[in-house]
Amino acid sequence: MKLLRNPVVVGILATGALAFVVWNIAGPMMKKSRPSRGPAKTAKVTPAKPAASAAKAAKPPSQAAGNRGSGTGAPVRAEDVAVRPMDLAAIQARIREWIEAPQRDPFERQTAVRARVEGPKAADVLALRAIWRQTGGQFAVINNAVLREGDPVAGYTLERIEGDGVWVSGTNGLERVEFSLVPSRRPAAPGRSSNPSPGGTRASHHAARTP
């Protein structure tokens, strides 16, 4: 009891009690704060994941296609790829043709050239007889058929009707056809016949035989 009255002993006991209380309160808090350092370490390792994804993206197309086709994700081996042999005989047969071929611009636009087949003239096939105009439009009589612009006739198409002719299109392109003149059949004048009478012929022959 005398020791409790000593101020030095009381100070030591008070200090010890205070330290015990502080340790019981601050100790658990310090233990809980230690695991918080773990994410800092994992943050240093996480940048390695984008590198792995970049390596997957950098795979060759053939390998990626093989992995997708097999479904196992295993890389394609060179032994599994079918190699097509080269036809050396065909190459040697055409090597001279390739060397002697004329050089041309690969970017040159190639236009298809069609051979033009020329046919008979439209004036030799079509006969224009008449042209007239009325409220319904213009008409032309060609090869004894009444036609208007746009109608086909004998392999041609009537394109335009004019006052003294028509324009048609065919194998020779656009051609003009004018009126066809029909020779008139007039009777010969009496006494001007080109054929002599049978009696006259006999008379001339008889006169020629007389000595």
Can you describe what's shown?
The protein has a 4-stranded antiparallel sheet, with no helix packed on it. It has a 3-stranded antiparallel sheet with strand order 1-2-3, with no helix packed on it. Among the domains are: 31 residues; 57 residues, SH3 type barrels (Roll). The chain has 7 helices and 7 strands. The chain has 211 residues and is an alpha+beta fold. Helix content is 40%, strand content 17%.
Condensed summary:
It contains seven helices and seven strands. It is α+β, with helices and mostly antiparallel strands and 211 residues long. The strands form two sheets. It has a four-stranded antiparallel β-sheet with strand order 4-5-6-7, with no helix packed on it. Strands 1-2-3 form a three-stranded antiparallel β-sheet, with no helix packed on it.
End-to-end separation in angstroms reads: 210 Å
Largest beta sheet, briefly?
4 strands, antiparallel
Helix-strand category: alpha+beta
Unreliable parts: 183-189, 191-211
Q: What is the mean predicted local confidence, pLDDT?
A: 69
Tell me, what's the shape? elongated
- What is the H/E string? HHHHHHEEEEEEEH
Q: Strands across the major sheet, in which order?
A: 4-5-6-7
Q: Please name the CATH topology of the domain at 122-178.
A: SH3 type barrels
Bin the strand percentage. 15-25%
As a whole number of angstroms, the C-alpha radius of gyration is: 58 Å
Instruction: Please tally the β strands and state the result.
Output: 7
Q: Give the fraction of residues assigned to helices.
A: 25-40%
Number of continuous helical runs = 7
Overall CATH class of the domain at 122-178:
Mainly Beta
**CATH architecture name of the domain at 122-178:** Roll
